[in-house]
Design brief:
Length: 252
């Protein structure tokens, strides 16, 4: 059983010219972040999007893997010439970029020997020492090396694989949250939110998010904490201040 740490963080590195050009809209950041928060108690602290450029990938992998407990990368592990993530990570960690025997066998069985061409064989080349993350959708595995998780960019495939990352992660304390939807604007609650945040600075994070929903303008106030008692106390403090200011609480 993996050891549980109180605070565990991560970064996400999105790799792909298609994201930067606007041709493809990223859907992976929200999914990975929510999964890490709710399933693993891991907080995503930074997200970067970089081009398909080996030097850029290497630089960011080194930087983010040193800065955070975990780094999740998406994109760039396919069979084409511009899929260079695995080779870049090999160079970042100064390990050999080579055929992974188990990955090779999985892909060979999936495609059949006659269809397992050189382009597809490229997907079996990984950094030495990689642990596979199995892919139930299209066979080509992701992998973990050191504290870096390497996943595909196609959202349905990534989503089908994500639970296979869980055994390889150290879990943090579950991040709890409570939300209040208010019929108001941010400027009317800003001072109260600042006071509550300062009062519970060590254990609580408070965010406010304007919305326009069902013809109503308002603000969603979200309180997050790994400490249930602090979460409840700050929530009750917020309710008290909202009632004093006669601000309407909305329910959806």
């Amino acid at each position: 059983m993996k050891k549980k740490l109180k605070k565990v963080n991560a970064a996400i590195l999105i790799i792909g010219d298609e994201i930067l050009s606007g041709r493809t809209q990223d859907k992976n950041v929200a999914f990975i972040s929510e999964w890490l928060n709710s399933q693993c108690g891991i907080s995503v602290q930074e997200v970067r999007v970089v081009q398909d450029n080996q030097k850029v990938i290497i630089k960011n992998v080194i930087n983010l893997s040193r800065k955070y407990n975990y780094l999740f990368t998406t994109g760039g592990i396919g069979p084409t010439h511009d899929d260079m993530t695995s080779e870049s990570i090999s160079k970042a960690f100064k390990v050999k970029y080579e055929i992974h025997k188990k990955a090779y066998k999985i892909l060979e069985n999936y495609y059949g020997k006659s269809e397992f061409n050189d382009s597809r064989k490229k997907m079996a080349k990984l950094p030495r020492g990689s642990k596979l993350i199995l892919n139930p959708s299209s066979a080509a595995p992701g992998y973990k090396i050191k504290n870096v998780f390497v996943l595909p960019g196609v959202p349905p495939i990534l989503q089908s694989m994500i639970d296979n990352c869980k055994p390889l992660l150290l879990k943090g304390s579950k991040i709890l949250s409570r939300t209040l939807n208010l019929f108001t604007v941010e400027s009317k609650i800003a001072i109260d939110l600042e006071r509550i945040q300062n009062k519970f600075e060590k254990n609580v994070k408070i965010g406010s998010y304007p919305f326009f929903r069902l013809g109503k303008v308002g603000v969603s106030v979200v309180i997050r904490s790994t400490n249930y008692r602090s979460l409840n106390k700050s929530y009750l403090e917020l309710i008290k201040r909202i009632k004093l200011n006669k601000i309407k609480i909305l329910s959806f």
